[in-house]
């Protein structure tokens, strides 16, 4: 395929052929004589040929050599093929700028203004929060205080055998605080409930557990040191009084009890399935008394008592929860353990 002129249709790059001369046929003379043959003009030499017209062709065209129209026109010259261009190779040393010119970062500047104060305050607040959490989780979960002035709590301690004396740490002596006014007693403090006797209004009859064993609910089980046993009475015991008579008179300084049936066996928790005691009034031999309220959770909950010399202690039940709910719910009021801490009278 080639390129052609848009005006004349001539192939671009080929010589333009000479126009053929047209001779008129001889005509007869009116006198009857044949007309003279036309004469052919002398050739004037080759006519100058202009460069071929190109349209919309940016490629340069080599010059055309004029030829004699009589002679045969030479073949069109062929366009020289340019040599292949060398493939450019990427040179990072020439095509890339130096690193320091492209990415010249500034040095980190110190915190502007007073931004460091916020970091210091945040650190101080974090330390304070840690201290508060340590104090909160470091306390005994079994402790309960009802009266900030005279109340005190203690974790359940293993009860001694019947009739024995078990020394109890004297926090007043250890901390060096001044003892409260009143009788002080002699010797170390100990658990005074074991060896005492209970007078109760009524006792529920024994029952049979899931294994077929007979379970009793005697009053003596309130000071046997076993939190899985209990004294139990039928129904709501609000207003009734349980009286403890100590083995000997003593100076009482702390009292408390486990306010329900805290037995857990065969995956069954009997504490919520029975009534729980939520309030009592402790009454002593000299007529003094002290109220105590309880949280609804198993475990020994104690309260500090102004030192009082007594041989009997009355426990008036002032508030009791409704019976347990569900298939295992029972309508009984129970006390698993009673604790009295003090010293000998002297």
From TrEMBL:
Composition bias, Low complexity: 14-26, 47-58
Region called Disordered, residue ranges: 1-95, 142-209
Pfam families with a match to the protein in the record: NADase_transloc
SUPFAM superfamilies from the UniProt entry: Galactose-binding domain-like
Organism, scientific name: Nocardioides alpinus
Domain of life: Bacteria
NCBIfam families according to UniProt: NADase_discoid
Record-linked Gene3D superfamilies: Galactose-binding domain-like
InterPro entries membership: Galactose-bd-like_sf, NADase_transloc
Stretches assigned to the NAD glycohydrolase translocation F5/8 type C domain: 214-340
Keyword Signal: no
Membrane-crossing segments per the record: 116-137
Record's compositionally biased regions (Pro residues): 77-86
Keywords on record: Membrane, Transmembrane, Transmembrane helix
Protein name, entry field: NAD glycohydrolase translocation F5/8 type C domain-containing protein
């Amino acid at each position: 395929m080639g390129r052609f002129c848009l005006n004349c249709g001539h192939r671009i790059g080929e010589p333009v052929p000479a126009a053929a001369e047209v001779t008129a046929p001889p005509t007869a003379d009116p006198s009857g004589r044949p007309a003279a043959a036309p004469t052919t003009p002398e050739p004037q030499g080759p006519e100058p040929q202009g460069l071929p017209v190109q349209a919309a062709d940016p490629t340069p065209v080599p010059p055309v050599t004029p030829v004699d129209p009589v002679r045969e026109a030479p073949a069109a010259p062929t366009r020289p093929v340019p040599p292949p261009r060398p493939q450019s190779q990427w040179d990072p040393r020439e095509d890339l700028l130096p690193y320091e010119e492209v990415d010249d970062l500034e040095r980190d500047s110190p915190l502007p203004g007073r931004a460091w104060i916020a970091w210091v305050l945040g650190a101080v607040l974090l330390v304070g929060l840690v201290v508060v959490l340590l104090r909160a989780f470091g306390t005994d979960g079994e402790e309960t205080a009802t009266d900030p002035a005279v109340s005190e709590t203690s974790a359940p301690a293993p009860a001694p055998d019947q009739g024995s004396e078990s020394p109890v740490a004297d926090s007043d002596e250890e901390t060096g605080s001044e003892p409260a006014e009143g009788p002080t007693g002699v010797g170390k403090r100990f658990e005074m409930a074991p060896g005492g006797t209970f007078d109760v209004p009524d006792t529920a009859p024994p029952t049979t557990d899931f294994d077929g064993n007979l379970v009793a609910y005697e009053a003596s089980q309130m000071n046997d040191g076993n939190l899985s046993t209990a004294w139990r009475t039928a129904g709501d015991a609000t207003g009734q009084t349980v009286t403890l008579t100590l083995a000997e008179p003593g100076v009482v300084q702390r009292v408390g009890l486990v306010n329900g049936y805290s037995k857990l066996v065969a995956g069954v928790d009997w504490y919520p399935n029975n009534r729980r005691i939520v309030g009592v009034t402790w009454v002593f031999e000299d007529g003094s008394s002290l109220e105590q309220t309880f949280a609804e959770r198993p475990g020994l909950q104690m309260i500090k008592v102004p030192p009082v010399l007594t041989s009997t202690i009355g426990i008036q039940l002032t508030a009791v929860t409704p019976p347990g709910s569900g298939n295992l719910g029972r309508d009984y009021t129970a006390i698993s353990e009673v604790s009295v801490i003090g010293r000998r009278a002297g």
